[in-house]
From TrEMBL:
Organism the protein comes from: Croceitalea rosinachiae
One Pfam family named in its UniProt record: Epimerase_2
Gene3D superfamilies per record: Glycogen Phosphorylase B
Similarity field: Belongs to the UDP-N-acetylglucosamine 2-epimerase family.
Keywords: Isomerase
InterPro entries: UDP_GlcNAc_Epimerase_2_dom (IPR003331), WecB-like (IPR029767)
EC number assigned by the record: 5.1.3.14
Domain UDP-N-acetylglucosamine 2-epimerase: 26-370
Molecular function per GO: UDP-N-acetylglucosamine 2-epimerase activity
Protein name per its UniProtKB record: UDP-N-acetylglucosamine 2-epimerase (non-hydrolyzing)
Enzyme class (EC, first level): isomerase
Amino acid sequence: RKNLIVFGTRPEAIKMAPLVMEFLKHPDDFVTKVCVTAQHREMLDQVLSFFEIKPDYDLDLMKPNQNLYSLTADIIIGLKPILEEFEPDYIYVHGDTTTTMATSIAGFYSKSIVCHVEAGLRTNNMKSPFPEEMNRCVTGVLSTIHFSPTKTSKKNLVLENKPEASIVVTGNTVIDALKYSVNKVKSVDFADNEINQLEGILNKNRRIVLVTGHRRENHGQGFINICKALKKIALDNEDVQIIYPVHLNPNVQKPVYNLLKEIENITLIAPISYPAFVWLMEKSYMIITDSGGVQEEAPSLGKPVLVMRDTTERPEAVEAGTVILVGTNQTKIVEETQKLLDNYEWYNQMKRLHNPYGDGKACNRIVEHILKDENER
Ligand code: UDP
């Protein structure tokens, strides 16, 4: 049987890399090929090199002023000759990007079995996050097999009348990636310049508050509020160093550099590679983020997370208590951070909570299911 695994952005690559590695352990059962759309070029390449994945096909679609219309069209058109030549039985897509949605359309046209990894996340508001909620709903409609990270995401799909037998709860593959990465980064023969440089800029006497933010819904006033909150936290807490790898999007860069660049205990750096980020998460006291992946990863490392969003498609983390939603409300961000900095009992309680996103064996469950599916078809 032939597998084609398709992804285009850094977070997708991180979450699909362990699946590629797991399928490659079964060369007698599957021919597995990887296609990247390279919706994000540079950040994607760093992940590929860390996981030692060489794509078989590369659409190389990143262009200046890329827009959703041309990207969607280019992905579908770019995949056509690949699907015609390779004729995959199974196509795997991940999550909610334009690559995910457009690939599932192409996979439907080619009559392959579309398998959606990280299926069933919903805000149930088609306009938010935009365009991700639409991407995941369309992909859900076109997929034959849904690999849901949690029972909650499975329930969302059942409510949309997807057959129960088509949904498999696996845990999130991000935990598989994280476990592999933590081991690799800690191994004696792993050397990384970026980690060495980061070591040089960390102040050993201060608690590290790691910040990331990029979401479209926070652009504008949201980022201004976030920056004002970070400034207050920094000024009120001399024993804290805020480290912020700033996303390359100008809508993020502009407010962040304007408002935060000259504060002694705020260190703004360029986005860092995945292994360096994993290393930095481990060194952190706590994390403030609007990222989906980071809030799934951090609890496995015992790091409390504040999430700067008003709505979430990840209610499991809020219910488990491993993350607290603070939106982009300046006062709320400051108060919840201060509570974690000052109240050790509260901090330790949050640190110890169980991560609802899995045990690091999601990819193994996916492969086992496909082996079974293949025999049944
Ligand atoms: N990440 C990274 N470098 C950074 C910031 C984040 O490698 O400077 C990783 C992080 O560990 C997580 C993923 O990128 O696995 C999250 O990506 P992002 O926040 O861009 O997207 P989202 O998860 O919100 O879709």
